[in-house]
Amino acid sequence: MDRWREGRAERVRAARQRRLAKRSMRRALRSSRLRYWGRCLGAAVLAAPVGVLGLVTTPLGRRLGWPGLMHPGRRLFRLLTGKARATREERDALARAMFETADQDERDAADLLTRVPRAPRNHHLLLTGDAMSDTPGFLFDASASEMEEAANSYDPSGAMHVVNTLLGMPTALTSIANTFKILAEKSDEDFPLEKEVAEALEEVYKHLKRSVEAAEEVAEVVERVHEHDIRRHKEPRKGEPMWDTSNNDD
Predict the structure, then answer these.
(1) Fewer beta carbons under 10 A from the terminal one: N or C of the chain?
(2) Which segments carry the region annotation Disordered (predicted)?
(3) What's the CA gap between 75 and 58, in Å, rounded?
(4) What Rg do the C-alpha atoms of the chain give, in angstroms?
């Protein structure tokens, strides 16, 4: 279970690193945007006096047919802002690429730490009857089927046996829940299974723990609504069997 917790801690650390990398990327993009607008403002300041000069050169350029003399301020502003935009796009692309690289590295590291070694894909094991018979067996479905069959054929001789059976259900469900918890631990520590298997078994364990709470409520209901009957059994009055319905035909 310690390795499982370490794997979870590693995934939490990877998620934290990803958030930090994303925050760093956003900070870099924000800085890039501010630098871009700063350069645009500087371009406007530089282009303004040239634009004033263009009030004289533009009409002259129209008369002479020289486009180079027309709107010099506007063309200078477009040139400077175009370079600023290209530089900003390069910075933004670099920031996003660095984030993607860091994110992928974190994912690869977390995946490498939480994955167990796998057998080759062409590795096959044929289990014969003798090999299977020598394997220590734990078939949960067989045990559960036996329990179901026992419940189906259950024919108690007295009501207190039924009461005790119901009162023991929380303990029984706790054992079943612990079975999945143990399997989750073994799947993570001893068996060549991926971490998702242990996580799925852990989810089953959590659901079964909630069923234990429901079974405890059943036990409380039984004790409450049959309190008088249970007390008569545990603290019988003198001659209590005489009140048995089988002894009172009339």
Answers:
(1) C
(2) 226-250
(3) 12
(4) 39
Of 213, 151, 137, 204, the C-alpha closest to 176 is 204
Task: Identify the CA nearest to 81 among candidates 49, 47, 55.
Answer: 47
Q: Which two tokens stand for residue 45?
A: 């300041």
Digit-coded pLDDT (tens) for 153-209 = 888 878 888 888 888 888 888 888 888 888 888 887 777 778 888 888 888 888 888
Structure tokens at 65: 């047919």
Predicted TM-score (pTM) above 0.70: no
- Confidence (pLDDT) at 73: 80
Which residue in the block uniquely carries the two structure tokens 């050169």?
Answer: 57
Contact 204, 222 (CB under 8 A): no
- CA distances (Å), origin 201, targets 13, 37, 207: 23, 54, 10
Is the distance from CB of 85 to CB of 36 less than 8 angstroms?
Answer: yes
Exposure b/e, 153-181, CB count within 10 A at least 16 = b: eeeeeeeeeebeebbebbeebbebbebbb
Under 8 Å CB-to-CB from 52, ≥6 apart: which residues? 73
- Report whether 20 contacts 98 (CB < 8 A): no
Distance between CA atoms of residues 188 and 115, nearest Å: 10
Q: Tokens for 180?
A: 């999945």
Rounded CA-CA distance 212/174 in Å is 6
Other Cβ atoms closer than 10 A to 228: 8
- Alpha-carbon torsion angle 87, 89, 90, 95, nearest 10: 130
